[in-house]
Amino acid sequence: MLENKVGMIFGVANQRSIAWACAQACGQQGAKLAFTYQGERLKENVEKLTKDMPEAVIVPCDVTNQAEVDAAFESVDKQFGRLDFLIHSIAFAPKEALEGEFLTTTRDAFLTALEISAFSLTQLSLAAVPLMKDGGSIVTMSYYGAEKVVQNYNVMGVAKAALEASTRYLAEDLGKQNIRVNAISAGPINTLSARGVKNMGAMLKHIAEKTPLRRNVEAREVGNTALFLVSDLSSAITGETIHVDCGFNIIGI
Ligand code: 0WD
Question: For residues 171 and 160, what is the distance between their CA atoms, to the nearest angstrom?
Answer without folding.
Answer: 16
